[in-house]
Amino acid sequence: MSETVDLVISCGTVVSPDASYPASVAIKNGLIHAIGAAEAMPPSREILDATGLHVLPGAIDVHVHFRDPGYPQKEDFASGTAAAAFGGVTTVFDMPNTLPTVGTPEALADKHLIAAAKAYVDYGLYAVLGEDSIQHVGALIDGGIIGFKLYMGNTFGRIPSPSTGAMLEAFEVVAPTGKRISLHAETNSVMERREQRLRAAGRTEAIAHLDARPAVVAIEAVARAAILSEWTGARIHVLHISSAAELRPLAEAKARGVDITGETCPHYLLLSEKDYQKFGGVIRVNPPVREAANQLPLWTALLDGTIDIIATDHAPHAPDEKTRADIWTVDCGFPGVETQMPLMLTEINRGRATIHDYVRWSAE
């Protein structure tokens, strides 16, 4: 007699990046035990009838900010991973701009304890890669990280951006380890200068945030990072691609054989500059939501493989932190881990791409 499993998802349509096919799925101890015909399934403690439904792999969100430790008024690992589970996301990679910043093995060990005690889904932790943490690269890898996050431009937490010289050194140190370096690819000096000039001119409305961070800050950063990656052999990942213009240096680097991947987020595919007036400071995120003309090229880049994956940059704040009148005092970021899959599947249903494309972007 076959061993009993915990759950059989019966008679659904299983979706992979390449095919859809009728099948049942048996699950035991949290793992897939078997996929096959309904009559071939082992006995189970529970059966979920999925007739007429699609069965998708859980999404892997490689870019979330769960604010734990340090910002309990915003979120913790329990609420963040619960939201992920409700949104069909079964693995998350959490960023290091917490309090304290995850830049030492001690801070990493403390965060592992927090995550392990609270998480409802699988998780991985990033460590920050900056001028102060280069010396800790080996110890951070030994402590169990999935990769490094390097901030080329400022964002929430204001982690200092390393000089290009320090970036090169960091890439040289990480390259032999094989760990990937995820990049907040915005050139800090350009943004700081423009924001100062806009503030001096009395610009405080929401759209001023977009004016402070034009697409050239991302184009320059992606191109520079690709050159350093090519020189050192470091593996890099471009986070939250927001503009059509970034696609050229990304595609050219891939064509040269640089080990570079990229992601975009639903808000860059579905929101535009018209939404600043509608949502005010709530829409403030880094990089900013850009002009509508960027949307179709980003969709096209997903379809042709220039952009590899969908992530969210999930970054919650308390309501009062998002609704201040002066845009420069509004915290950057907003939630996304629970809404990514419904939003993207809505677009799939509208014919924007196939459900197989979505599984490839979100899970493969």
| Tally of alpha and pi helices | 14
Oligomer class: single chain
Structural class determined from secondary elements? alpha/beta
Sheet with the most strands? 8 strands, parallel
What is the strand content?
A: 15-25%
Mean pLDDT: 96
Instruction: Work out the number of β strands.
Output: 13
C-alpha geometry: globular
User: What is the H/E order?
Assistant: EEEEEEHEHEHEHEHHHEHEHHHEHHH
Enumerate the spans where pLDDT stays under 50 for 5 or more consecutive residues. none
Radius of gyration: 21 Å
Distance between the termini: 34 Å
Q: Roughly how much helix do the residues carry, as a percent range?
A: 25-40%
Strand order of the largest sheet: 6-7-8-9-10-11-12-13
Structure write-up:
The protein is an alpha/beta fold and 364 residues long. Helix content is 35%, strand content 20%. It has 14 helices and 13 strands. The chain has helices at residues 77-86, 105-118, 137-142, 164-174, 188-200, 208-212, 216-232, 247-255, 266-270, 275-279, 295-304, 319-322, 340-349, 355-362, and strands at 5-15, 20-28, 31-36, 44-49, 54-55, 59-64, 89-94, 122-128, 147-151, 180-184, 235-238, 260-264, 309-310. The chain has an eight-stranded parallel beta sheet with strand order 6-7-8-9-10-11-12-13. Strands 1, 2, 3, 4 and 5 form a five-stranded mixed beta sheet that branches. Helix 4 crosses helix 7 (216-232) and helix 7 packs parallel to helix 8 (247-255). The protein is globular and about 70 Å long. The relative contact order is 0.12.
